[in-house]
Amino acid sequence: MRRGPISFVLRLVFIAALLAAWEAAVFYFQTPAYIVPAPSSIGYAMYNGVASNLYVSHVGATISETLLGFAAGCALAFILGTVVALSRTIEYYLYPIIIMFQAMPKVALVPLILVWFGLGLTSKVVSAALVAFFPLMVNTIVGLRSADEDRVNLMRSLSASRWQIFRMLQLPNAMPYIFAGLEIAMIFALIGAIVAELISSERGLGMLMQSLSFTMDVAGQFSILFILSVLGLVLNGLVTLVRRQVLFWDTSRDADANEASTTKGEVY
Amino acid sequence: MDAKLDAGLGNAWANGVISVRQLSLKYGRGEKGVLALSDISFSVADGEFIVVVGPSGCGKSTLLKVLAGLLPRTEGEADLKGTPIKGPRRDIGVVFQSPVLFPWRSVLGNVMLPADVQHLDQAEMRKRALELINLVGLTGFEHRYPRELSGGMQQRVGIVRALIHDPAILLMDEPFGALDAMTRESMNVELQRIWMERRKTVLFITHSTAEAVFLADRVIVMTPRPGRIGDEFAVDLPRPRRLDVMNTEKFGAYVRRVRAALNPGGGGLD
Q1: Is residue A268 a part of any domain in this protein?
Q2: A143 to each of A180, A244, B169, B212, B245, how far by Cα in Å?
Q3: Which residue of A has its CA nearest to B144?
Q4: Does A102 lie in the same domain as A147?
Q5: How far is A165 from chain B (nearest CA, A)?
Q6: Do A157 and B94 count as a contact with CB atoms less than 8 A apart?
Q7: Are A69 and A110 a contacting pair, CB within 8 Å?
Q8: ipTM of this complex
Q9: How far apart are CA B244 and CA A43, in angstroms?
Q10: Which residue in B117, B155, B166 has the most chain A C-beta atoms within 10 A of its own C-beta, making it the best mutation to test that interface?
Q11: Do A74 and A127 share a domain, yes or no?
Q12: A202: how many CB neighbours lie within 10 A of its CB?
């Protein structure tokens, strides 16, 4: 679908109209601010929060929890995914456990994680890592197994060792799947960190969300939702940036970057 | 050249580069097993261009996989240069039906793949790769990626890749099957030129009768279910052959001979 600059302007106009209708409805119906605040009061709350430096340390805490959890979860997911993909025996024994964990809503484990790892940074990192783990592990397995039979035969006909087949064929071939998994894992890590913060924490946007809820500051909560949304976009954008550098040869996703959810390999 | 060819044919059984005796291959075991190859015997002399022609399902690709060491044979003997085939070997090059290029490697990178796998001297192989890329007219495309090339260009890269480690034997499995008829004919002329320059022993598989006769020193016709040799004959046409050789009476006679072996009943409806 080709879109010109006019469509882009129309899109902005549409969003502006939506915000105006929201503002008008709140004003017209005299909706109390503790139920639905007007966009203008959300903007004001945001301005106050930024001006008083309230957000900075909490945003920093949430980002570091998310990134540390992402790194730890993805490292483990890649290693375990590779082991399972390369060994049918290990897969046979691990499969029931993997299926059990995959079906379980991982955030239900967060209260336990808080008991085991305390209220500080560690429990948030573990929670983020746990939630980020599965999408990448599943995509790593699928990706490593997706090598074309002819390509495997070519490598075998050259007397390639198993390690060479892995390094020169299976791994690069799996990269589109792995990056699709990393993009989801990044968002999932943010979810894991926020849920842990919501339940019990000393810092972070989730904890801030909770404390604003106690004071019925709904406009403040909306401003945090907005920050979280931007944070998600930025973190996801980081992965996309790296993917474009590494996967310059993969044309399957250039067609429409917006259709992230319909990409190959996103089995989770 | 004809004299050399005759000498090669005479000695074929004694010192064939490829020699296959009473080879058979069964997929699966027992009652349910399917006999893909039955009682195949032939021999290929050094520098000879052999074409195996047959319909799909006649086991010709299976035969190639056995020679490439990718499939174990069920019965019989198969030797390359006097030693039995036990698995993949470094002195053969294989060209597959599709180009089988790695999209993350450039043209040069793809051609260098066998050198990387077999830890050959990088500088020397790189020089050789550039020569070979030039030989197939792809100079200027060394650093392009497969997605930027046409189907014919991709298959040329696939052929050159099979030559980089200087294998004595080239096995080609319907390499031009996916190309349009006109590109295919020009690739046939080009392959003949490469072969005349490099003089590898070639075993080429196709289902095109015209392609078989055009390229071959000797044609082996395979018939299906189970795959066995229906006919085998030498093609006595001078080289280099040009495309208009296909219009000659002699060429037509060879094509008819292939067709007769494939359709013993005359090829009409029963």
Answers
A1: no
A2: 10, 18, 34, 39, 49
A3: A249
A4: yes
A5: 9
A6: yes
A7: no
A8: 0.81
A9: 80
A10: B117
A11: yes
A12: 10
**Domain count of the fold of chain A:** 2
Smallest CA–CA distance, residue B228 to chain A, in Å, is 24
Whether residues A101 and A195 share a domain: the answer is: yes
Distance CA A16, CA A68 (A): 37
Torsion, CA B193, CA B196, CA B198, CA B199, rounded to 10: 140
| Residue A171 domain flag | yes
Counting residues of chain A whose pLDDT is more than 70, the rounded percentage is 93
Give the domain range for residue A3.
Answer: 1-30
Predicted TM-score of the model (pTM):
0.81
pLDDT in tens, A216-257: 889 999 999 999 999 999 999 999 999 998 898 887 654 444
Angstroms from A88 CA to nearest CA on chain B: 21
Residue B220: φ, ψ to 5°: -115, 120
Q: Judge contact between B34 and B28, C-beta under 8 A.
A: yes
- Euclidean distance between CA atoms A261 and B140, whole angstroms: 39
Claim to verify: residue A81 and residue A56 sit in the same structural domain: yes
Q: Are residues A24 and A83 in the same domain?
A: no
d(CA A208, CA A224): 8
Interface contact A158-B118, CB threshold 8 A: yes
Amino acid type, B80: L
* Chain B touched by A155 (CB under 8 Å): yes
Residue of A nearest to B104 (CA): A249
A164 near B CB under 8 A: yes
Q: Give me Rg for the CA atoms of chain B.
A: 19
Which pair of tokens denotes residue A220? 């403040």
pLDDT score of B76 more than 60: yes
What DSSP character marks residue B227? B
The number of C-alpha atoms within 13 Å of B244 and in the hemisphere containing its C-beta is 0
- Name the minimum distance, in Å, from the CA of A3 to any CA of chain B: 26
Residue A267 lies in a domain: no
Q: Which of A157, A168, A172 sits opposite B70 (nearest CB)?
A: A157
A125 and A22 within one domain: no
Chain B CA closest to residue A159: B88
Using an 8 Å CB-CB cutoff, list residues of chain B that contact chain A. 65, 68-70, 87-90, 92, 94, 96-98, 100, 102-104, 113-114, 116-118, 145, 147, 165
Which CATH number applies to B46-71+85-91+168-262: 3.40.50.300, 3.10.290.10, 3.40.50.10860, 2.40.330.10?
3.40.50.300
Answer whether residue A266 shows pLDDT above 80: no
A151 assigned to some structural domain: yes
The CATH code of the domain that includes A208 is 1.10.3720.10
Residue of B nearest to A147 (CA): B102
CA dihedral B167, B171, B174, B180 (to 10 degrees): 20
Whether A251 has its CB under 8 Å from any CB of chain B: the answer is yes
Contacts of B88 in chain A (CB under 8 A): 156-159
